[in-house]
Amino acid sequence: MAFKGTKLYSILGQKCPRCQEGSLFINHNPYKMTNWDKMHSDCPVCGLHYEREPGFFQGAMYVSYGLGVALSVAVLIADILVGFNALEFFIANTLALVFFAPLLFRWARAIYLNIFITYRPEARS
Ligand SMILES: [Zn+2]
Questions:
Q1: Separation of 1 CA from ligand 1 center, angstroms?
Q2: What does pTM read for this prediction?
Q3: Which among 5, 22, 80, 99 has most CB atoms closer than 10 A?
Q4: DSSP assignment string, 56-92
């Protein structure tokens, strides 16, 4: 991709924030129900240990909350444009949050890792 080296590349591509080559998750498909949440413990390319300390990814829940609120606001705006009432918004929002839950989970972890780790292409071994 053209924007390699940016945090957006790492987040959207689910790549290691340090080398941007190794993948964060074992399976690339977030909707494969057997292992959608399984991460590599270390980057397969540069060896970066992803869980920086015990419970590190609990902080990603705050990012996930923010993403969930952003998604709900987007659904609200779409519902206002379509003319849905409150019950229809509730149903549409619930469906959107459930459908996008695996993606929000993965993006939250990638964003949280990218807060602490910067891109270093020389880290590749
Ligand atoms: Zn790496």
A1: 17
A2: 0.90
A3: 22
A4: GGGGHHHHHHHHHHHHHHHHHHHHHHHT--HHHHHHH
Confidence tier at 125 by pLDDT (50, 70, 90) = low
Alpha-carbon distance of 21 to 6, in angstroms, equals 13
Tell me which residues have their CB within 5 A of the ion that is ligand 1.
16, 18-19, 22, 43, 45-46, 48
Residue 37 CB-density burial (10 A; 0-12 exposed, 13-18 middle, 19+ buried)? middle
C-alpha 121/C-alpha 7 separation (Å) is 13
Nearby residues of 99 by Cβ (< 8 Å), 6 or more positions away: none
Rounded CA separation 78/74 (Å): 6
Q: What is the pLDDT of residues 3-47, one digit of tens each?
A: 889 999 999 999 999 999 999 999 999 999 888 899 999 999 999
In the block, residue with structure tokens 């807060």: 115
